[in-house]
Amino acid sequence: MVTPHGGTLVNRVVSKRRREELMEDASEMPSFRLSGGLRKDAQNIASGLYSPLEGFLCRDDMENVLEHSRLSNDIPWTIPILLDMREEEAKRFTEGDSVILESEDGKPFCLMDIEEIFTYSKKEFAEKVYGTDDINHPGVQKTMDMGSHLMGGTITQLDELPDPFEKYALKPMETRVLFKEKGWRTVVGFQTRNVPHNGHEYIQKTALTFVDGIFINPIIGKKKPGDFTDELILDTYDILIKNYYLKNRAVMSILETEMRYAGPKEAIFHSIVRKNFGCTHFIVGRDHAGVGGYYAPYAAQDIFEEFPDLGITPIFFKSFTHCWKCGGAVDGFICPHGDEHRENFSGSKMREMLVRGQIPPEHMMRPEVAKMVIETEKKFVV
Amino acid sequence: MTEKKYTTVSIPVPLAKKVKKRMEGTGFTSLSSYVTYVLRQVISSIEEEERQHEGFSKEDEERVKERLRALGYLD
């Protein structure tokens, strides 16, 4: 089994007895309400998904991540995990004290020991993480909307919060035990934000040829209007796996985090998270975690050269098409035929057909998947 | 922002020459950055070999298996 990032799987969820002790002290502590994205980050830290992080970053680590893409102890890390707040909120807290973190609906679930409260430059943050300060970039826009102050420190999760996707929300310790029980020594992680078409299946099964199992890991969370709903993505993958994958070689569970659209840096972050789930390999396609034209098509693959000590092996895929002469999905490295014989897996074309109630051709999408999309009333985020 | 924190390590001149030779065509432009890259690679593979146990207690593992069975991930 692959070692967790940094050597140890962090577990910042308290036992029942310890929880009771902490809750007694907590009644007199100030509280801070998190947004959905920050709440997910806190939960991911506590469950070990962001190992070796044990809390939100303090200044030294943040600056190292921005400057060198490493924590201050030299462990690779590319996306600073920060807890931001407005200045007037920051004034309520003191370094050395503890604060109760609440979910977006006001439920206390976490305790944080405040190590440092500090300010930062949003412009510099945006340039280092996203490679641009263009406000049209969604990550930059989000950065500019952040509070002016940051609070760093170790967290302790006191309570599990209800999760609408509980069945699919496996924690890293659970996926690690699952992979071990299945006898998988090598596991490839696949990230998705879409309902599957045959191009995705081609990539997954090509990678699966070389490893023991595939871990399909959709990102669940804040989406743009017009995106497929989380429920539909999960349902369509369920039906695809049931009909077209060997039961003992594919597992699906979700990753609850917000997309940053940080392209190459996010590709490294996504790999680290999959490593913590127990994956030995991770599929990185064209423009992974990209948006608009901000990143070169294969920048998210090239960046891996900078991290010889990442501890997870990326599997790179170029763009792929259906070739009528080959009779299946291909990429430019395996198919000698010209463009006149090829047809792109056009997500937008398939989507238009599905909206009209038409089943896309079988070489593009499995009929079971298409039927499920058509029959689902709430297909898209509004 | 932080200044880069570096220290100096002495290596024998013949070894430095060998490393420089090995560096050719790799895209690295300085001996220091190439040596840093190689050391990170070596140290991480040594550490990986040293950490071959999972570190879960039997009780934790059994509890997790039970939950995985309840959720339908294990038979």
3D architecture notes:
The complex is a heterodimer of chains A (382) and B (75). Chain A contains 13 helices and 16 strands. The longest helix of chain A is centred in the middle third of the chain and has 15 residues, at 230-244. In chain A, helix 5 (122-130) packs antiparallel against helix 6 and helix 9 (230-244) packs antiparallel against helix 13 (367-375). Chain A has 382 residues and is an alpha/beta fold. Chain A has helices spanning 16-26, 36-47, 59-68, 87-90, 122-130, 138-144, 172-182, 198-208, 230-244, 264-277, 299-302, 347-355, 367-375, and strands at residues 31-33, 55-56, 84-85, 98-102, 108-113, 116-119, 149-157, 187-192, 213-220, 250-252, 255-256, 281-284, 313-316, 320-323, 328-331, 342-344. In chain A, strands 1, 2, 3, 4, 5, 6 and 7 form a seven-stranded mixed β-sheet that branches. In chain A, strands 8, 9, 10, 11, 12 and 13 form a six-stranded parallel β-sheet that branches. Chain A starts with 15 loop residues before the first helix and ends in a 7-residue tail after the last helix. Chain B is an all-alpha fold and 75 residues long. Chain B has one domain (13-70). In chain B, 59% of the residues lie in helices and 0% in strands. Chain B has three helices and no strands. Chain B has helices at residues 13-23, 31-50, 58-70. Chain B starts with 12 loop residues before the first helix and ends in a 5-residue tail after the last helix. The model of chain B has no long low-confidence stretch (mean pLDDT 86). Chains A and B meet through helix 3 and helix 7 of A and helix 2 and helix 3 of B.
